[in-house]
What we know:
Mean pLDDT: 83
Order of helices and strands: HHEEEEEHH
Protein name: DUF1815 domain-containing protein
Helix content: 40-55%
Low-confidence stretches: 126-132
Shape: elongated
Pfam families: DUF1815
Distance between the termini: 48 Å
Organism: Planktothrix agardhii (strain NIVA-CYA 126/8)
Amino acid sequence: MLHFVNNPRCGDRRRIMFLRIAEQHRKFVQDLVMNLQALATVLERQGYLASCYTCGGQMNSASFMVSLGESHLIRFLVSDYGITWTEMRDDRELMKLEGAEAIQQLQELANLVIYRGIPSPHLISPKLAQRV
């Protein structure tokens, strides 16, 4: 490991590697933002109050929200700083997930829309159901 750190020939490779990872992350966030916009559109067409707002034209952050009825709200935030899923009922936070877990929960919501047509107004995540 010290050989790699102290080897001057490796400096360019490290810079390139981290630049490549940064670019992959930017593309991942842009893809996620586009999918959030599409999910909000589908949910709106099914009669749900849903929105997806982005900052700027580069699509490097978004705020997605959907009301599932009975004071049940889902908020999904994505930016360069992180990804969070927050589930609230009656203005109280029921569950907050970050990173990969937040994306998995978003996938569960998308699956309900895709495979069942309309998500249940009583959508409760499996993790939340285990705690209740």
